[in-house]
Structure formats: C-alpha cells, structure tokens
Amino acid sequence: MVGASGLVGRHVVALLREKGHHATTVARTPGPDVDHALDATKDTPPLEGHDGVVFAAGVDDRNVPRKPAYPVFHAGNVEPVARLLAAARAHGLTRAVVLGSYYTHFHREHPEWRLAANHPYIRSRVEQARAAREAAGPDLPVAVLELPFVFGRAGDRLPNWAEPLEKWARSRSPLVAPPGGSAATTARRVAQVVVAALDERSGADIPVADENLTWREMFGRIADATGHPRRVRSLPAGVLKAAMRLTGITQSVQGKESGLDPAHLPDLLLRELFVGDGTPGAIDHALRETFTR
Questions:
Q1: Which residues lie below 8 Å from residue 104, measured CB to CB, with a gap of 6+?
Q2: Which of 50, 133, 165, 172 is the most exposed place for a label (fewest CB within 10 A)?
Q3: pLDDT of 42 strictly over 90
Q4: Which fold has domain 7-291?
Q5: For residue 205, with 0-12 CB atoms within 10 Å meaning exposed, 13-18 middle and 19 or more buried, which class applies?
Q6: Between vectors from CA 288 to CA 287 and to CA 290, what angle results, nearest 5°?
C-alpha cells in the first residue's frame, strides 16, 4: 500500500487486515505504522512476496509550481506509477489499484470540455491511467478509482482541504457558493471499492461517489457539522470568473502555473460534477467526522 499514512490509505490498510489480508505499508514519512519509509516519486518499494499493489500517493491539484506546471505533475503522478507497475509486472503481481481523480471520468464522458488540454493536473491523471496500464501489460489488471471529494477521518488524518473549509465555516466571513456542485464519497467507501477491485482483479475505470451536492448544500452542511449553522448566500458566476482571472494574473506575474488553470476553472466549478444518482445523506456520518472536533 503506497501512500499508507494518508486518509484513504489508512482506511484501505485497516479494511485489508480486517478481511484477513496481509498488508505492507509504504509512506514518505517514517512512523510506527509504516513498514517502509520512502519517497514513491523516486523509489520503488520492495514487492517480493506480494500479490497486489495499491498506489495512493502523488501530487494533488492544489499545487501551484513554477511554470511550466505539467512536468511537476508528471513527475509526481505518472512516472512513479509507471515505474511501480513495471516492477509489479516483473515480480509477477496479479492485481493493482491506482487512486486517481473523477476529472478523468468527466474527461472521458465530455471530451468537448478539453479538460486534459486545459489543466496540467487533469492531463497528468489521464496520462497516469494510460501509463499504469501500459507498464502493467495484459496480465496485470489495473483498476483506476476516480475519486471526488472524500470525507472522513483516520485518527488525526483528515482530507487535505478540510482545514481551510473548517476555518471559513467557523469564521465570521459570509458563506457564499456559486452555481454548480460536486459528487462526494467517504474514505471508508473508497477502501471498500479498493478491496473489491483487488479481490476481483478488476481492470476497470471506477468512478466512486455516494452523494451529489450543490456547493450551497456542501458548505451549509459543513457549517452545520462545525456547530456554526448559517445561511449560505449565492455567489454570482461573474464574481467567480473575475476572481479566477485575478488569480491567473497573479500566478503569471509570480511565474507560477496552477494544476487547474484559473482561466478555465470556472467552466468546471460552475458545472454540476455529479456522478450517478447519489443517495441523499449518504456521507452524513463521514462529514460530521471530518468537521466535528
């Protein structure tokens, strides 16, 4: 399990062991629950004696490196997966799972959105899936889980984006939300899908979602979970677009480039990035776990 100390990684390891599997943990930072401390973007973990591998590491879309951005995302998301899966194939492993992004689902469903062309991060996720399967070859099926917002907690580990949203919800600043929304799931649910994909030797692209929320619904429920319920006001689409233009100008002046290009990001954020029908209330418990102190 590469990325075993992360939120989803911890849930995957716990569920594998709960079902009687042996799980070896790999993470960047040493710790009592880490069997091998190494940087997966540079080194390949030992694979002898294992039957499957899960990759849950890499560079996320919040990174804003110096221009050009794509080489950074390629080095963090594509190269280590290709190297890992090539090694897994050489060692005779029989199953693999890569944790990716639901943006690849929308890239596949809506090629007219030009997501990979417009956003370096999404391009890296598309390339990650392709490179993983190319390196693995026909005898090592690779399931790619396409993940939206993931809520939940694992000890002290929370989603990377939880802290700023919690601070906002607890502050006196007004809560505002543009049109649009997103699918969401839970860390426990992702772990269940990972283990099932390993057991079944799935080689599919698997979108994972439990509930679809508008931004207004999501922010309102986060505020409720923090114990500071309040009204969420509408943010006009034009205001969001203007803010993104300013962000893009600032990044350009600083010589930086975002993984999600601010010039095209409103085209995403203002859409309903929903997956399937969803079940109202499905993430309630995980949402409270994430934001209740």
A1: 122, 125, 126, 129, 144, 146, 205
A2: 172
A3: no
A4: Rossmann fold (3.40.50)
A5: middle
A6: 65
